[in-house]
């Protein structure tokens, strides 16, 4: 700084000299930028009496100082500033604690991020200069580009090397959530990779409470186990188990088994089963360490407690196949595939068909696998599924395009979704109308509860659209499926403005019916579906439109028109229309006809759990119980049968049995409706703590569920 010079009166104008250039500033405006500047210019420092102050040693350019002077007057930064100039000012602002100036630079720099490389370059500065807005903007770019950005070493280095303070700058107190996401993405890509291990190590560091530590220790233990780092894995599983993560005992048991000590593995699981309420996974894990009848008993118990576990079905099917009981083996694996589309099960069934030299069905399964996961590798990752498909195809007579359409029509009509997927996969190799086929594929995948694969197919449909109006339809469905209903409607209208088409009218009708609460909109929906039916399309889609139109007519009380729609749909083999027609019969007080209509659907549909469930509404109590028991056998994930059986038990004053029925289902599917009903039952028998526990669990699923909120409020007022 310059030498002290006495002056009688200090002017408000102060000149900051930088590299020989003087910049005039308001002393009080600059002083207002920060406490250090105020102390320097108005306090006991020599600069408080100077009009000419040298700032050349502070890595600031004349342009930077002029910008700061302007900011001190206006409170805003010039829009023409370059990122380099803003970085310079940001560093200066941080050094002199000019928080408003720093925040303005922080936000302005954020607007310059247009690519991953920009984010990489600016993240370093953001972390060094403690700029949370800039860091968050850079992070947003990385997260939008997951999982691809994790192939970039610079991005990975940022996440792996970030200190606790730097993580706080990036995400505040959400470090655990960030590394939960990153580690999940990395595990899905390659659970054995160094990147996955690094992210999980950061997750352990970020864990603050007991639950977070349980999850972090266990997941890192799993990765260490896969990487064959057994000592570290054992330490982590032990830490997780001691923190309360019961499932980590499975990791400890597997480590004991790897070391050749199956007895210890068995004992560890048995110990847990005697100390905690038994769950399906406990019996499944223990079955790995015993033989013969003991293994079968454990697997049976595992399926009883949790019918959604995959391994028991696969083990039973493989055992039956080894005994040459082909039909029973296929029935076992088909039973699981009826409610849970699993790549492992499709692979096992593919192997069964190969062994039987049933190459047509083997091809069907491998094509379904490739639809769900194009890069899937079979036989423990040793062979690409695409390679096996090539080999199997040599043994199968090739279908023409016409054959494929006939096969698709037959399988779609019989509600054989996996078979339909396979046919579409084959058609995509040769058919020119790929957009339409990818769209059909997405519909099937949604029906099979594979939303990620369905979205991938929709995006491919958009990519391969044959025209602008077709592309707009697929964009509309993408928007609709991601919760942007109004934007989806706009896309449908844009498409119609270019060309009237079945799919555009159907999309508009579907989105409008789903989003509007105005009863009068049903007239518009009817009109749109009628317009759709006037446009060219195949019978598969027209059957769907007729079915939807029938549903709208039923809701409007126009049963004759509804029946006509359903009958027309059935004439073109839209099998699901039986359900709509059954509803019409029921509303006409003809339960017998409704029952018979659903019987026809059950006979035709390959996947018919929902048909049994619907038919249960049209028969007496004993037949209802039988139908719902069949539903649970075919698809244990459907919750209505459990609710019905529990309600019947409650009506019979069998409160404990009713709660046990719900508890059995909640153990493997914490469904909101099941929790709500069990909470009400707990309240009824005076178990206030149990009711509160279920209320809180349900509200964690849906915090705005009105009935649950009312029950929680009522129960809470009863708590002593």
Describe the structure concisely.
By secondary structure, the chain is mostly helical.
Explain this structure.
This protein is mostly helical and 720 residues long. The strands form two sheets. The chain has a three-stranded mixed sheet. A hairpin with a 4-residue loop joins strand 4 and strand 5. Helix 5 runs parallel beside helix 7. It is globular and about 100 Å long. The chain starts with 12 loop residues before the first strand and ends with a helix. The N terminus is likely disordered. Keywords: Coiled coil, TPR repeat. Pfam families: BTB, TPR_8. Pathway: Protein modification; protein ubiquitination.
The low-confidence runs, each spanning 5 or more residues with pLDDT under 50, are 1-8
Structural class designation: mainly alpha
The fraction of residues in strands falls at: under 5%
Largest sheet: 3 strands, mixed
Organism: Acorus calamus (Sweet flag)
Coiled coil: 588-615
Keywords: Coiled coil, TPR repeat
Domain BTB: 12-113
């Amino acid at each position: 700084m310059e030498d002290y010079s006495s002056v009688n009166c200090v002017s408000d104008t102060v000149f900051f000299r930088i590299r020989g250039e003087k910049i005039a500033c308001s002393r009080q405006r600059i002083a207002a930028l920060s406490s250090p500047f105020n102390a320097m210019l108005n306090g006991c420092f020599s600069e408080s009496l100077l009009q000419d102050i040298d700032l050349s040693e502070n890595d600031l350019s004349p342009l930077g100082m002029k910008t700061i002077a302007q900011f001190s007057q206006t409170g805003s930064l010039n829009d023409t500033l370059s990122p380099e100039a803003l970085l310079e000012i940001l560093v200066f602002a941080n050094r002199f604690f000019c928080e408003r100036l720093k925040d303005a630079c922080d936000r302005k720099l954020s607007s310059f991020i247009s690519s991953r490389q920009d984010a990489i370059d600016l993240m370093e500065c953001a972390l060094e200069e403690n700029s949370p807005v800039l860091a968050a903007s850079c992070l947003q770019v990385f997260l939008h580009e997951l999982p691809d950005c994790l192939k970039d070493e610079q991005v990975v280095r940022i996440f792996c090397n970030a200190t606790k303070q730097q993580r706080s700058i990036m995400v505040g107190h959400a470090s655990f959530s960030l590394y939960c996401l990153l580690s999940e993405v990395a595990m899905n890509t390659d659970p054995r990779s160094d990147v996955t291990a690094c992210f999980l190590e950061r997750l352990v560091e970020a864990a603050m409470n007991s639950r977070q530590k349980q999850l972090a220790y266990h997941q890192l233990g799993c990765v260490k186990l896969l990487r064959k780092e057994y000592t570290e894995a054992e330490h982590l599983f032990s830490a997780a188990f001691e923190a309360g993560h019961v499932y980590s005992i499975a990791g400890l048991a597997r480590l004991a088994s790897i070391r050749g000590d199956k007895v210890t593995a068995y004992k560890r699981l048995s110990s847990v089963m005697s100390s905690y309420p038994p769950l399906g996974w406990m019996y499944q894990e223990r079955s790995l360490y015993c033989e013969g009848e003991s293994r079968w008993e454990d697997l049976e118990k595992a399926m009883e407690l949790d019918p959604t576990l995959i391994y028991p079905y696969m083990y039973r099917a493989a055992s039956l196949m080894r005994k040459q009981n082909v039909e029973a083996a296929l029935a076992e694996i088909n039973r699981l595939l009826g409610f849970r589309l699993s790549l492992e099960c499709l692979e096992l069934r593919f192997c069964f068909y190969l062994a039987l030299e049933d190459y047509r069905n083997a091809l069907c399964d491998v094509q379904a696998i490739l639809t769900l996961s194009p890069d899937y590798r079979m036989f423990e990752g040793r062979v690409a599924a695409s390679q096996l498909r090539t080999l199997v195809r040599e043994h199968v007579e090739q279908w023409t395009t016409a054959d494929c359409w006939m096969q698709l029509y037959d399988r779609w009509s019989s509600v054989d979704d996996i078979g339909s997927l396979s046919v579409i996969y084959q058609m995509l190799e040769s058919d020119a109308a790929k957009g339409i086929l990818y769209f059909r594929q997405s519909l099937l995948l949604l029906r099979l509860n594979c939303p990620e694969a369905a979205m991938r197919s929709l995006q491919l449909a958009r990519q391969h659209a044959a025209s602008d109006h077709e592309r707009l339809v697929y964009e509309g469905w993408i928007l609709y499926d991601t919760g942007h209903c109004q934007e989806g409607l706009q896309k449908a209208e844009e498409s119609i403005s270019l060309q009237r088409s079945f799919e555009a009218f159907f999309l508009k009708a579907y989105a409008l019916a789903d989003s509007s609460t105005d009863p009068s909109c049903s007239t518009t929906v009817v009109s749109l579906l009628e317009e759709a039916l006037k446009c060219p399309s195949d019978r598969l889609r027209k059957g769907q439109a007729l079915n939807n139109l029938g549903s709208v007519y039923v809701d409007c009380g126009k049963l004759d028109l509804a029946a006509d729609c359903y009958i027309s749909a059935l004439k073109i083999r839209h099998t699901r229309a039986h359900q709509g027609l059954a509803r019409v019969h029921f509303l006409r007080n003809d339960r017998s006809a409704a029952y018979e209509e659903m019987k026809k659907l059950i006979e035709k549909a390959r996947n018919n759990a929902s048909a049994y469930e619907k038919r249960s509404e049209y028969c007496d109590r004993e037949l209802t119980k039988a139908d719902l028991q069949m539903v649970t056998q075919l698809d244990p994930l459907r919750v209505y049968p459990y609710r019905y059986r529990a309600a019947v038990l409650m009506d019979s004053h069998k409160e404990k049995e009713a709660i046990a029925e719900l508890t059995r289902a909640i153990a493997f599917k914490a469904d909101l409706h099941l929790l709500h009903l069990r909470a009400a039952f707990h309240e009824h028998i005076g178990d206030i703590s149990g009711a509160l526990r279920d209320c809180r669990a349900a509200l964690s699923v849906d915090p705005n569920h009105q009935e649950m909120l009312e029950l929680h409020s009522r129960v809470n007022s009863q708590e002593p």
